[in-house]
Structure prediction request, 145 residues.
Amino acid sequence: MSRIFFLLICGISLLFAPIEWKAQNAIELKKDEFYVIKMQTNEVQKTLYFRWTLLKNDGLVVHLNYDSFPHQFVLYEDYQRNCYRVSLWKPIDGYYGEEPYFLLCFKDYKRVERIATLQYYIYEGNRNFNIIDERKVTNGSFGTN
Prediction:
């Protein structure tokens, strides 16, 4: 009986274990200012970038591009509509863990300065990869700016 109770407690504690983020950062972006993140696993390198273009009815219109696949969505400050999730790599076959993902959340908007505060999180999941570059760029030029 005590073994079953012990296993039950261990299982429940794993369900509520805090997520360990590979990276997390709060950034302030002006309209049409890009944020670029480059990731690499083995020889494969992928780029993720995002920007916001419009604040309408308290919704922030965001454009995100990952691995040449464009996304467009609206984020709000309320807790149910403030985040957007993008899967990064496919899970490894035979490994039972959550796949890696990128999570972008809308935190605040300064109306006078027209600056949005966004928080992003990167979860490594069952893949090992490195973040090789992350930075703000002003006009989408992803070169050496």
In short: The two ends are 64 Å apart (CA to CA).
